[in-house]
Amino acid sequence: MRNSHVTREAIARKTFAEFGRERLSALCAAAGTPATDLCGLFTRMIMPWGERRIGASPSYRSNVADDQAPFEFSIALSDEAPELQFYVEALGEPPDLRSNMPAGRTLLDTIARDLGAPLDRLNAIEDLFFPEQPLGAFTSWAGISYRQGRPPQLKVYLNPQVQGPSMAPSVTAEAMRRLGLGRPWSKLNDALVSSRDRFDEIGILSLDLSDASDARVKIYIRHHGARINDLEAFASTAAENYPEDVRAFYATLADSDGPFLRKPVITEMAFTDASLEAPSSVTLEFPIGSYVATDEVARHRIADCMTKFGLSPDLYEAAALAFATRPLEQRAGMHAHVTLRRLANRPRIGVYLASEAYVPDGTAAE
Asked: Which of 28, 48, 167, 232 is the most buried (most CB within 10 A)?
């Protein structure tokens, strides 16, 4: 299914709510997922600022998506029903770190109440991540994950650098201590590298806002200047890891062994069991949008990656074509990241898509 192309001028005239619902509806249609309730939840999460017109350039350059829009979308495929996700950075008035911070916290309270999601883990650490003078690229994002037949799942993404980059290790360590995960965090912290040629950076801490026994705390580590062999070594820190996956995943998507010198590659370490001395499991993440000339190249590499891991790329390709607002061969910009994790040894590949509400500087607009 191919979506009709939309001009930049037409996008600029739309509101965030209109354009975001269109993109989410396109993904729902490709995935065979009813759109009404999910689009309604998306709309609630971007109000009241969702009624603003997009305009030709962002008044606030959000870090949640590669196109600097305040929302991002994804589709994840496995041998189960497809999973749709979206992520939102709540905007204050006018939008900036100071005004976005309380807007984001209010959004989490509201949506958690609507969905019956517990906030006890967030409440335990919120003073670390919502300071009086926030710094860095963002304060919080809210995420929704939905698979047909299952209620929407709420997640929060927090910035360990919100008190400054130098404070990220201590902020993370204290948060993990309060969450009862200090011991496995210590094992991961010992594996972080800082050298002249490459270094690891603590980027995000996320919480599954759920009472489920497998609700995760995740730490996102950005690997600056890493090669695939470095990523293999780091992934092995997790209690559950699959060494053969690392090279197969990154080499297929990057068409290279590294070093990856553009946008850093990311490892997401999940913590679910405080009795372990290491992270429970690992998710691999590759910022494919920074390593391809066009989205058509990205589409082919992602399809090859899915095939390599025994997944059919057909639904993904239909979703990408439906989501796009322009020909994929025109440039890069829609495909942002690709992830791989295993659930009970079965692969799950997620593809993260920028809506292209904006075309960032340095990207050729049509």
From this structure: 28
**Angle subtended at Cα 210 by Cα 206 and Cα 211, rounded to the nearest 5 degrees:** 130
What's the helix, strand, coil split of the chain in %, to 5?
Answer: 40, 20, 40
DSSP 46: T
The gap between the terminal CA atoms of the chain, to the nearest Å, is: 22
CA–CA gap between residue 251 and residue 356 (Å, rounded): 27
Evaluate the omega torsion of the peptide bond into residue 58 and state whether it is cis, within 30 degrees of 0.
no
Query: 201-239: per-residue pLDDT in tens?
Result: 999 999 999 999 999 999 999 999 999 999 999 999 999
For residue 303, give every residue at least 6 positions away whose Cβ sits within 8 Å of its Cβ, in sequence order, or none. 313, 316, 317
Helix (H) or strand (E) holding 206: strand 199-208
State pLDDT tens for residues 256-293.
Answer: 999 999 999 999 999 999 999 999 999 999 999 999 99
State the number of CA atoms in the 13 A half-sphere of 230 facing the CB: 24
Give the residue carrying structure tokens 């025994």. Answer: 310
| Cβ(244)–Cβ(189) below 8 Å | no
Cα angle, residue 337 at apex, residues 331 and 339 outer, rounded to 5°:
145
What is the SS3 assignment for 143?
strand
Burial class (CB in 10 A: 0-12, 13-18, 19+), 113: exposed
Q: Is the whole model's pTM more than 0.90, yes or no?
A: yes
Extended strands (E) in 26-152: 71-77, 83-88, 140-147
